[in-house]
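Deliverable D4.2, example record:
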Amino acid sequence: MSEKIKHYQGEALKSADFKEGRVPTEKWRPKVKFAWSAGIAIGKFLEELKKGKIIASACSKCGRIMVPPRIYCENCFKPTDGWKYVKDTGTINTYSISYLAADASRLKEPILVAIIDLDGASEGMGIIHKLGEVDKEKIKFGMKVKAVWKPKEERVGSITDIKYFKPLKEAIL
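Output generated by the structure prediction step:
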């Protein structure tokens, strides 16, 4: 049978002891640089965006084509085993008209954001991105859209290499 400790040896310290300098302290800020890996799937996705292409991962077991790509399939729990390019066109699944910026400040003109199911990907697979060249009153669920890419020399391998998605001409009618 073990005894419970009722009192610890030593002196109890309070935050004020540190703030008021009663306890010796050392402040040190390390000079470190950070690096991270986007991983196999997203790394390949970003490389292809820089080239102006959208790539998906493929699962040969259940046939899913997944964007953004993953290294395993959530449906059959198997590793993905292939790559497939999908089109830079798609359909608006849902959208939002937001008068708040990323920093939560108010905007006079709204940001239009949509979940876009990309053509060539499995049903329900797509990306979230900004919409452009469209009036907020004319956006519709199911509207066909196309990516507007940054010029090749400005691409860096980021989702922002696609500036926005705009409606296809026939979608505006």
